[in-house]
Amino acid sequence: MxxxxxxxxxxxxxxxxxxFLRRRLRSHEDAQDATQNVxxxxxxxxxxxxxxxxxxxxxxxxxxxxxxxxxxxxxSHQVDDHCTLDDNIAGxxxxxxxxxxxxxxxxxxxxxxxxxxxxxxxxxxxxYHVEGLSHTTIAQTLNLSVRSVERHMAxxxxxxxxxxxxxxx
Length: 169
Known about the structure:
By secondary structure, this protein is mainly α. The chain has helices spanning 5-25, 28-47, 55-81, 85-90, 97-115, 119-129, 135-142, 146-164.
């Protein structure tokens, strides 16, 4: 029985995908899991008869998406590790309910504005402001030029300022 396209792709590109994800995610375990998810997705598409004519292009896109998903999950878990806005506010008994509502709404609008950005721009913004990486490190991590990182940062900041300008008056 001949090998399926996904099997051939896994044999020829599996190590490269895992290596890419290991560099991108800086974690052997996360890279292993993400690589498995990439090829399981390909296999599911193949079994459903929905595999594209060029499965390699789907594999590349799936690898980038898998890395982004893992990074978003990390950020989500980091947020869970920090104290909540309510914890900070509870420490100040004089804080009024209207102020709590105001800042919650501002945070919601800010998150909405970030979610409107392209994935790469979001990723650059989060790596800088949440992970604390420098523009140079972000450029190396994402295989971009430093100037591209600066453009993504400028785009994210301008977009958020524009979306929140009426709110922050």
